[in-house]
Amino acid sequence: MKRLLINSKLLLLALTFLGFSGCKKFLDVNPPYGQDAENYFQTPDDYERALVGAYDLLQASFLSVWIGEIASDNTIAGGESANDTEGLHQIDAMTHGAVNNELRSLMRWNYAGITRANYILEFQNSIDFSGKDQILAEAKFLRAFYYFELVKFFGDVPLVIDRRIGASEVTQLDRSPKSEVYAQIEQDLIESAAVLPVIARAKGSATKGAAQSLLGKVYLYQNKFSQSAQILDEVINSGTYSLIADYADLFSVANENNSETVFDVQYSGAEGGGYGCLVCLEGNAGPGFHGIRQYNGPVYGDGNSYNLPTQNLYDAFASNDPRRDLTVLDIDAFIAAQPNAASITYAVGAGGHTGFYNNKYIKRQGEIGLPDDDLTSPVNYRVIRYADVLLMAAEAHFQNGNSGSAQNYLNQVRNRVGMSSINISSVQEIWNERRLELACEGHRFFDLVRTGQAATNISGFQLNKHELFPIPQIEIDLAGGKWNQNSGY
Amino acid sequence: MKVYQFLVVLLVFFAFNSYAQLKTVKGNVSDENSQGLPSVSIIIKGTQIGTNTDIEGNFLLEYENNTEVILLFSYVGYQSQEILLAGRAELNISMKPEEIIKDEIVVIGYGRVKAKELTGASSRVKGEDLEKMNMSRVDQALQGKVAGVSINTNSGSPGGSSSIRIRGLSTFGDNDPLILVDGVIYDSEGLNALNPNDIESINVLKDATAGIYGVRAANGVIIIETKKGQLNSKPKFEFSTYVGFQQTAKKLNLLSAEEYAVIKNEMFGTAGQPLPFNNTGLGIGTSWQDSIFSTVPIQNYNLSMSGGSKSTRYSLGLTYYNQDGIVGRDKAHFSRYNGKANISSDLNERWQLNSVLLFSNEYRKGLPENGIGSVLYNTINAFPNEPIRTPDGNYSYLEEVADIINPIAQIENTYNFTWANKFVGKEELQYKITKNLFFTNRLNYNFAMVDTKVFSPLAWYGTGKYANTALNADLDAPQVEIADNVFVERGSSVFEQRATFTDLNYEAFLNYEQNIDSLHKIKATGGISVFHRKGNALNGTAFNIPNNSIEFADISANTAAGGYLNNTGSFEFTERLLSAFLRAEYAYNSKYLLSGILRSDGSSKFGKNNRYGYFPTISGAWLISEEDFFNSKFIDFCKLRLSYGISGNDQIANFAYRALLNGEGVYVFDDVITTGVALGRASNPDLKWETTGQFNAGLDLTFFKSLDLTVNYFIKNTYNLLFQPDVSAVIGSYGPGGAAPFINAGNVSNKGFEIELGYNSTILNTFKYSLNFNTTLLNNIVTKVPEGVDYLPGAYFGVGGNVATRFEEGFSIGYFHGYETSGIFQSQEEIDASTVVQDGAKPGDFRFVDQNGDGVINFSNDTDKKMLGSAIPDAVFGFSLSLFFKGFDLSANLYAAIGQEIIRNYERNQPYANQLDYVIDRWTGPGTSNIHPRLTVEPSRNNVFSNYYVEDGSFLRLRNIQLGYTLPSKLLKKAKTESLRFYVAANNLFTITKYKGFDPDIGPTAGTLSSGVDFGFYPQAKTIMGGVILKF
Questions:
Q1: Which of A370, A471, A476, A482 to mutate to test the interface with B (most CBs of B within 10 A)?
Q2: How does residue A171 score in pLDDT terms, banded at 50, 70 and 90?
Q3: What residue spans of A339-443 are helical by DSSP H?
Q4: Going from the N-terminus, what domains does chain A have, and what CATH number goes with each?
Q5: Do A368 and B788 touch (CB under 8 A)?
Q6: Architecture of domain B2-94
Q7: Domain B105-228 has what CATH class?
Q8: Which pTM value belongs to this model?
Q9: Relative orientation angle of helices A101-122 and A132-154, to the nearest 10 degrees
């Protein structure tokens, strides 16, 4: 009996071992309720949700808006200290090199956007359904938007289309020539403009006018003036857009998505965020950073004194130009004009002080976004507004020899703010108007570069170097080290 | 034999016939040198009756001569003896000293071995040594006890965790060793649940012989055994308690209001700005530190019972521990109930059932710690001319500084609760198949239910403060637009989560042991292990808690209109391991020992390509002192050990090999936050565990039967480190919720020496003492970084500042990297005359060293930065001392870490932030200082990360000192008490260090590369306690 017991135990033991060898499936654990990237696209809704993810990176635009101004003669970096976001201070002083956290973030975020758009386009043939064309068109619009950011900053960049890149494949990629990148951007925008509706399917989604206007801008950046003029004329003649009456209403949250809006990056005030993940925010981090440091008073909220307008910008406006005070906030003058001036306080950051704040994108009172209420604002970023379309069209026409149209468009913009019409004698006048109308909106540096004015207007700007930003050294290394750096860096 | 049986019969006869007849026995107990031994305990086995020897070793004992009498002689440091009295009237005994450690049975992986026969490098700590430390956590008590194990405190707050590192930092990710409590896997964070009083022994496997645990053994293994009862013993009860108080061991020297005003005036003045203070005569002002630090109680009560019948042993325990925080009082709280049952029963001759159940209930309250926004960070940076409360009774707003809030108000508004209930244990059936072959079959379980509640009241800290949840000082709730012109109120909120984690682990193994003949002995172990872990959680946030009050802080009480803002979340994961292991041991003539291990592991953490791994280890030992030629009078024991083996580490996130859509794809359409999907962490199907190859050579020596020396030298090379280094932006994994793929890349090498020295002695029979010393010398170096990368960036310095720590080939993990200063420019002439161009330099600024010799200090790249230090100490020392003298005992425990550096990162570089008082010695003009730069609010380079912010973090700390008195047993006998000891003790009584911060013993607060970066660390408390241990 006892022997039998032992034997049965040994048998049990043997069975245990046998069972062990037979249960390899035991280790096939699937992520519960998680979706796998490779077999995701099954329903139309899947495409729509992936598209939301591709839009998400638009909200990281605040960084290119900063650099577009700080690098120019319009603003200085500011901030808590010279080491606070040091990369911006270096760009401000034109001492930036290939080690720059901000440039690196910019490159990472735009490629993240491209990858999300490519992910949809990679699986564009998985299923068919009505409305798919528009989803693909929006994905192409977004891909063009992100590539345009990259090509503006870095020139030649690796062009990846309709697929994702694995970690080992990266080292085989070269920087594609700028011309190829531009060609892809143009193609994407032409294709998406053909499909996109005139009226957005939802407030914030890309439209035909947005794609055409961005295409006009892309042509302008390549000095393709006739194509630019032609496509922008289409936008203007469509009658979809008009200038709103009061310039003062342009940058308020209440007046968003108006007749002048061609394309906005949409932000929300419903959710704040922390400094830990700026790319995760649903609110606009720009105004929070631009806000008045430790401000305690009416109208405005408290912020971090970044991206501060210069005296040079302030002086560029005619004293009767209402756009001056709506663009540049003279803080001391503002405080002095308040009834309780003595009780209003603010602080000066050690990162620099000009006495001026960016009045277009600035933290305003009552904009609370937890958990850090001086970080975000619900105010949208105006990527392209109709005034910009008019000024781009004016420039394209003028360069194309059609000064009549140029003058008409330009004066529409001037007249809206009550400034008198002018007769255009040189393109410089259009450029100057462009600076005044669009100051602090992230265009200035790139306008100076593409129009060849940068060296004369930006101190420290070296020709054949600073037209482009350096590819972050770490990105060159991570891609296998064989890319050439941009010239001069 | 016949005589003996006759005597027994006779005794039984007497027992029946002469009931309660009293007899006496007298005699003498002597030591190995025939000297009388005093205070030897003599007890009649199975009774409470006994006596002690007098000063000359003599004793006299009365007993009831009604049964077989066995006398039990015991004395600390000597082998206990059991003598059958057999009616003798006189008995003289000679006691033999205990052979310390060497015959001790040591628990190793899936088996036990005599210490003498160990072939691997391991260190043991007895439970009583941990108990004496009076610490709430085992890891805290273990600090400095074992060579090669470095323990740093992650937080000194009640219930705060420690980081345990065995033989250095070897991986980028999880460096925690595998911790097994009675064979059950315990994570180091969860050590809070374990009661140090329940521990019998700890054995730390440091070298490759830990490889029997395969894919989880690369960081070493800590085997903890809980207390067990003894067969055939009456129930023994032990009640112990200590109560005490804790306070901060240090306060920082901050500026007084007057010093502050003078310095701030200078800072603004030199920048050409208006002076903030017209009147600098402000006196001392507010001491924010005095207001947040308090003296708080700590208490511990422990009741245990152990014993055994003929076939069953049991040990039961109950403990209550309660501690408040030196910062935040009861807002930083930890209390814990522990229940323990360890029962083992021989069911019959062959079956043994071992059952262990550890229950714990923990309650913790916490405050924000470590980093910008922590209470201490706010305290240090709050300026002294601001009162804590304004005259109207509100907390002051500290409005001149951004992102710094009133720390007292912060404590008041923080409600952060965690409750954890844990059941950990095993049911084990052992079957003796033959006298040489044992089968063990067990189910281990570890169940934890963790409840969290965070209440965020509407709070107002002043205009623009990041922590504001209210709209204004009247605590009006913000309005949130949920659709066009539709607003809802966002009031106070409560977050609640319940998470449960269940580990189930089935293990079955055979142990075979056979002495083939007098020379050859073999042992073999083989078995399997199946491990399953599941975790899931459900959480929710609800808004508009009535009255903005903690009283109603529950989701059920929310009054959020329409529930628009309320939200829920959940997570779930599963991970599994399937393993088999074999170990063969061979001993020849008890002199030559050889052991081989092979483990195979399959881990669900990896993809099909690389799911299974094989981990071999070989080790051997030579007992030189057993050799005939070995003939040393002063060396009693000498053993040489060698081992080499490979083990693994799979401690990464689940499903890291797959691409999941777990990124964040959220955008605003029609003014509504719309959630989509996005790619998360990029995939890597080729992902596999990291491997560690470790060589160890060790020598164990005993001199004069009293001095034990263990020396180990090790080389530990970790390959294919698992981590998420940066990848090219082009891969597109840096969107919200995205991350780089986990890859295997990079190697790290740790080499080091460990020395453990123990000495026991007795002087004149009455004065016994023991000394233990250990030291670890460690050299950590990164030997490879991932392809295409020069270094991996680590922690940041300052706010929005640059990377200050790195993972780089040729340097230790997380070494500090920045500019080197060489004094201060005293004048403009000096700047002009300098051969090195330093952009923006003014008199009073640092003179930086031009490392690359290009004649320019490069601030836009890294070419002028250099290695500035490392958080890894060159050497760690532990020293403990115990003295016994006539009932008195004194023990002390010292710990020292030498050659470690700390980055002072708790000073907020803002114009109005308060500062440490070293700034009083700042540069104010030529010749005033060559160390501390000028202070100004204008932009300067003085705040870039340089060696100025790196401090020597070496320290020596008295971890514990204890003075006790044990009452003479004669006194206690009447009270039927076995022993009664009183003691007073102090933890962290003093620390010798040059470090300016609160506490130089800081762990990595945010991953390996943040080691040594001090963000305003919650310091360990200085604790004074009194306690009683009563055994009966």
A1: A370
A2: confident
A3: 386-399, 403-416, 427-438
A4: 44-265+383-478 (1.25.40.390), 275-379 (no CATH)
A5: no
A6: Sandwich (2.60)
A7: mainly beta
A8: 0.81
A9: 150
